Amino acid sequence: MNVIIRKSTLSLFILLTACAIAATDKDAVNDMKALKAKSWTVPSIDMEMNLIPKGSFTMGSAADEEYRRDDETQRNITISKPFYMGVYEVTQGQFYPLTIADYDHEQWKHFRGPIADGGAFHYRKQPSGVMHFYGIELQPKFPMECFSWIRAMQYCKDLTAIEQKAGRLPKGYEYRLPTEAEWEYACRAGSTGMFNIDTDLEKLKTQAKESKGDLAKQKYLNTFAFAWSINPRWSRTDNVGNGRKPNAWGLYDMHGNVAEWTLDTYAPYSKQNKTTDPLYCTDQAGQEKVIRGGSIAGGFPFMRSAIRYSIPYDANYYGFVGMRIVLAKKIDIPLPKQNQ
């Protein structure tokens, strides 16, 4: 699989954001670089991020948690350094200009995105009964999806280059995908239960049972206002956030909407009970990467804080897999070897 690196794209982004760079408050930049600012908006892509403090937590699910899986064995984890995490999943409006700057939005016409050309699956609004059309409204606030782990890594690399050139990176930090541990730590935000906010599990179960087979009732999870999920057959993503409740650290859609890539290669958890900044990555060909958070493609049991799933690192055709990025300590990891 080839990833096209457009130097002209980086140059254009740097040029177009010159005014924003000049206008950025120096004190705000200094506070961010010192990891003192509680929030930070990345000027080049207008991405809101919140500071996640360092700390410790219990990763995985309790043995008596309903719906738990065998690969969620609990262990005590320490996150040794604070980091910034995107308040929302990366949107189409933030993804296209940086990664596919020359994408022909005007000529796109099918009711689903042209996946082979790098477009999102949930791309334009879908008027009832309309299959081919021009000019229908784009969805820039929908999360970006249908891109591989490799392309996600390239996105982060390009963003890091832009912000580094502008002098807006803390020493030793970069924009990247979160580790699996960082993701769960940020998702939980101090919570220890099935989800990162209090909810009524029995009501969730009752509504799920009642909605079976009835498309008019498939939005049962959305009535609890912390996740976005619809029956897979008629699913679509939604504007990030969009009135739903954030967790205690102000992060939206850690449950539902799209699942999110992490850095880790999928494997059983280490048997070590106490670990600092865990990360497992290999360069093995054909490896699978961990995705977190659940999505529109599954019900609430698949959105739990501890749930783990994996897909091939080069999969670029899932309309329910996106990403949320972090500004965190730099990590050098091996890229997967190409299958021969």
Structure, briefly:
With 340 residues, the protein is an alpha+beta fold.
Structure description:
The protein is α+β, with helices and mostly antiparallel strands. It has a single domain, classed as paralog of FGE (formylglycine-generating enzyme). The protein has 7 helices and 12 strands. The chain has helices spanning 7-16, 18-23, 26-33, 92-99, 149-165, 180-188, 201-211; strands spanning 39-42, 47-52, 55-59, 75-79, 83-86, 173-176, 259-265, 274-276, 288-292, 309-312, 321-322, 326-329. The chain has a 5-stranded antiparallel β-sheet with strand order 1-2-5-12-6. A 4-stranded mixed β-sheet has the order 10-9-7-11. Strand 1 and strand 2 form a beta hairpin. It is globular and about 50 Å long. Mean pLDDT is 85; it is low at 1-22.
- The percentage helix is 10-25%
The unreliable regions are 1-22
CATH architecture: Alpha-Beta Complex
Class from helix and strand fractions: alpha+beta
> What radius of gyration results from the CA coordinates?
20 Å
Our estimate of the beta-strand percent is 15-25%
Main sheet overview = 5 strands, antiparallel
Give the averaged pLDDT, no decimals: 85
